[in-house]
From TrEMBL:
Organism: Algoriphagus lacus
Gene3D superfamilies: Lipid/polyisoprenoid-binding, YceI-like (2.40.128.110)
Organism phylogeny: Bacteria, Pseudomonadati, Bacteroidota, Cytophagia, Cytophagales
Superkingdom of the organism of origin: Bacteria
Entries under SMART domains matching the protein: YceI (SM00867)
InterPro entries per UniProt: Lipid/polyisoprenoid-bd_YceI, TTHA0802/YceI-like_sf
Record's protein name: YceI family protein
All residue ranges annotated as the Lipid/polyisoprenoid-binding YceI-like domain in the record: 4-180
Length: 182
C-alpha cells in the first residue's frame, strides 16, 4: 500500500470509525483531471496518483491527492499552478470526504447512478459539494466515474488580472477511479 493510500485509509477509518464486517475498496492510482477553456487558452492537467477508499457497508468515501502530482503538458504552466495559484507548499493536498446518498449494495455486481455528498477541500478551503457519477461494481472491484465543476473564487484561488482572461472562472473536474476490495 503506498504512503498516500495508507494516509487516506488511516484518516478515513479514524474519522468514520472502523468496525468488523465492513467491506472496503481502495486504490492509490485513481485518475482525476481538470480542464479550463477560454478563447485565449486551454489548461488541462491529470493526477494519476489519487488515493480513494470506499466503505461499501456504510457507503462513505474519501479521496485525497497531492497537488504537485498534477501533470501538465506545459511545465511552465505546472510551475505557475503549484507556486502562484494552488500554493502547493502551503496547501499540499486536496480532498473529498462524503457519503453516497443512494442505498445501493456496492458489493453486488451492477451499474449504479450515484450522488456523493460531502466536503471538498482545496487550497485550504472546505465547502459542501454534491458530486454525481456512475459506479460499476463487479463485487471485487468498483469503477467510479464522475464529473463536477469548481469555481476558483469559492476556494480563494486568486487569478492575477494579467491572466484572468486565460483561466476560466469555473473549472471542469473529472475522475476515473478503479478500486479493489481490501
Amino acid at each position: 500500500m503506498t504512503a498516500n493510500l495508507k494516509l487516506i485509509a488511516l484518516l478515513f477509518l479514524v474519522q468514520i470509525g472502523y468496525s468488523q464486517g465492513q467491506t472496503l475498496y481502495g486504490t492509490s492510482t485513481g485518475e482525476v483531471s481538470f480542464y479550463s477553456d477560454t478563447p485565449l487558452e486551454t489548461i488541462e492537467a491529470v493526477n494519476k496518483k489519487t488515493g480513494c477508499i470506499i466503505n461499501a457497508t456504510s457507503r462513505e468515501l474519501a479521496v485525497q491527492m497531492k497537488i504537485t502530482d498534477f501533470d501538465f503538458p506545459n511545465k511552465l504552466m505546472q510551475e505557475h499552478f503549484n507556486e502562484n495559484y494552488l500554493e502547493s507548499e502551503k496547501y499540499p493536498t486536496a480532498s473529498f470526504k462524503g457519503k453516497i446518498k443512494e442505498a445501493v449494495d456496492l458489493t453486488v455486481s451492477g451499474t449504479y447512478s450515484v450522488t456523493a455528498e460531502g466536503s471538498l477541500t482545496i487550497h485550504g478551503v472546505t465547502k459542501p459539494v454534491s458530486v454525481k457519477g456512475t459506479l460499476v461494481s463487479s463485487g471485487s472491484e468498483l469503477k467510479l466515474d464522475f464529473k463536477f465543476q469548481v469555481r476558483t473564487e469559492d476556494y480563494k484561488i486568486e487569478v492575477p488580472s494579467l491572466v484572468v482572461t486565460k483561466i476560466a472562472e469555473t473549472i471542469d473536474v473529472t475522475g476515473k477511479i478503479t478500486l479493489v476490495k481490501k
